[in-house]
Amino acid sequence: MGEASAPPTGNLWYRIDHALRPWRRANPMARWLVIIGLLITGLFAFLALFPNLVAPYGESQYQYVVGGTEDPEDLDVRCGTEAECEQVPRRIEPSKGFPFGTTAARFDVFSRVVHGARVAFSIVLLSTALAMGIGVPLGLFSGYRGGKLDRVLVTLMDAVYVIPPLLLAIIVAFVLQAYFDPGLASAAVAVGVVYVPQYYRVIRNHTLSVKEEPFVEAARSMGAKPRTIITRYVFFNVVQSVPVIFTLNAADAVLTLAGLGFLGYGVPFPRAEWGLDVSQALSDVVSGFWWTAFFPGLATMLLVAGLTLVGEGLNDIVNPLLRVRGFRGRVARRALPAASGAAASEPGPAPSEGTDTSTPGGIR
Amino acid sequence: MTAAALPHHAAEDGTEIPPILEVRELSVAYGTYRGSLQAVDHVSFDLWPGESLGVVGESGCGKSSMGRGLLQLLPPGAAVGGSVNLDGEELIGVDRRRLRKARGEDIALVFQEPMTRLDPLMRVSDHFVEAIRAHRPRTSKQQARHLAREALAQMGIPPTRVDSYPHEFSGGMRQRIMLALGIVLSPKVIIADEPTTALDVIVEAQILDLLDRMRSDEQVGLLLITHNLGLVAETCDRVAVMYAGRIVEIGPVPEVFAHPEHPYTQGLLRSVISVDTTELSSIDGSPPDLVTPPPACRFAPRCPARFDACDEVDPVLASVGPSHEAACLLHPGSDALASTPVVRPSAGGAA
Q1: What is the ipTM of this complex?
Q2: Which of A293, A350, B62, B273 is the most exposed place for a label (fewest CB within 10 A)?
Q3: CA–CA min distance A320, chain B (Å)
Q4: What is the pLDDT of residue A73?
C-alpha cells in the first residue's frame, strides 16, 4: 500500500507530454499562427521587461552627455553643472544615431517605442487582471445561484456591453480623473472595466451548463457544500475558456489604451505611450515628418497582430471541433503506408483503416 | 405491518429490530406552468437493516423522484412533504447543514449513467478526498486516500489506479467507483437508482453481487430503484410496485411475484420478456397526467378488471397476505371507509 500512496510525481514527462497533446494534434496552420504570434509578443515582452538594454535614451530624455552612457537619473544635474551636454536634435529623420528619427520635443522615437512596450504591457496585464478578477467570480456566482440576482447582473452587464468600448473607457477615465491623478492605475481601470462583461458572460453561461452536469448533482448527493461545488467542481470545468478570451482581450486592450492615449485620457504626457505619441505627432504628419507617427503606430499594430494570432491559434487548438480536421489529416497520412502495406491484397477493409489506426496514433 | 414474517425484522434472540428507514406519507411535487405535479403521492414504507427493497414501475411513475425526495435532492421549485425517519432522526425539515451531513454519510445515492457522474477534471482519489473531507474535515489527505484505496479495493479496483482520471476507466469500473464513493463513509442506507441500466450483463452481475455483499456484511439497507423485474427477483427481499406516484403493491418478492394481487403488478409481470415468450404483452395506455390525476383509482382507466366503484373510491393499501399489501378494490379492506386501523388517510387528500 505504501508505495502506491505516492502521488505520481515521477511521470512528470508523461504529464507534460499529455498536456501538449492538443498542440500536437492541432491543425498545422493554427500552430503556425501561435508560433508567429508568440514570436511577436515575445519580442515586445522582452522590450517591456528590459527597455534599457535596447533603448539608447530614456523615455523622456531630450539631452545627452557627449561621449558617455551615464545614468539618466542625474542627467539634469550633470547637464546643469557641466557644459558637456548636448540636446537631442529636433525632427531628425531616421538615421544612424537615431534609427527611428526624433520628435519636435527632442525625443528619440526608437526609445519612445521601446519604452512604450512597457506601458502597453503593464496596462494590458493590469486591466485584464482586473476584468478577470471581477468578471470570473461574478459570473460563477451569478450562474450558479441563478434567480433574480442573476437576472439583474445579466441585464447590467448587457447594458455595459452595449456601450462602445472606447466610449466606455473614456467615460470611466473621465470619472476617474475627477478623483485620482491620471496615471498607469487609472488608465488600467478605465481599460479593464470594458472587458468585465466579456468574462462575466462567458463564465456565467458556461456555469449554467456545467451546474446541470450529473457530476455536480452527484457531488451534492455526497453532501458537498455550495462553495465546494463552485470552487472545486464548476470552476475548473469553466476556467478553460478564460485563456482564449484573455489573449483576444489583450489585443483589444492595446487598441483601447492607444485610443485613450490618442484622445488624451490615458497615461499623462511624459510617459512613453504609443497612442499619445501618435497624437503628439499629428501636426508633424502634414509637414512631412512621417516617422514620428509611423513607428508608434506600427508598434501598436504589430503587438495587436501578435496577440490576436496567439488568441485565434489557441482558440483553434483548444476547441476540439476546430482541431479535428488537422488531426485526422495527419493521422490518415501517417497510417496510410502501414495500412496499405498490411492489407494491400484486401481492398475491403481499407476505408475503415483510417479510423481504426487513429487510436494508437492518438495515444502516443 | 406484520414484521415477524421476514428475517430482517427480528434479531436472533427474537426481539424486534426497528426499521432503519421509516418513510411516512412522503410526497414530492414539482411546480409546472399548469399547476403542481404530484410525482410522489403519500408514499409510506419501511426498510430494515440488511434488507433490500426493490422499487419497480413504469417510467414516470415517480421512482427516481422518490429516491431523490428521500435526500431532498430536488431541482428548485420542487417541494417535499411527509416524514423520512432515518434511524430515529427526522430528515424532512432539518436545516441544510444537517441535511448535507446526512447526504453521503447516512444515506448514499448511487446514480444511473456512471459515465457522467464523475468530474472529468478530478482524479478518482480527489473525488474521495472531497467526499470524505466534506463530512470529516479533520481527516488528512493521506488518511482520506487510504480510505479511498480500501473502498476501491473492495470494489475490485487496484490501488495503483486511484490517481487516474475518470475517462481512463471503463463504464463498469466507473460504476464500481461510484459505488465505492457511496460506501466509503459507511452509510446506513444506500439508494441505488438504476445502478446497472447502462452496463452489460456481466458487469451488472458484478455490481449486484457487490451490493448484495455490502448489504449482508455491513447490514446496510438497500433501496433498489429499477424497472428490471428480473433484477428485483434475483436480489431483493421485498418489492414495492409504484404506479402514478403511489405504491400500489408491496410485499415479499416470492409472494408478490407468485401471487400478484394488483392488476397493474399482474400486467407488469406479464410484460416481462423471457426465453419462453412467444407473444409480447403490454398494458394498454400510459400512466396518467399527474397534474390532473384520475379522481379515484389511478389505474382505473387502464385496468382490465375495472368495475363501477373504481371511478368513485380511492383504494388504499390493505393486507392481502403475510406482510403483503395491495391497493385495489378487488380486495376487501382497500375501500378506505371500511378499513379502520390503517394510519394513512385516503391518499390524495390533505396530508
Answers
A1: 0.77
A2: B273
A3: 16
A4: 57
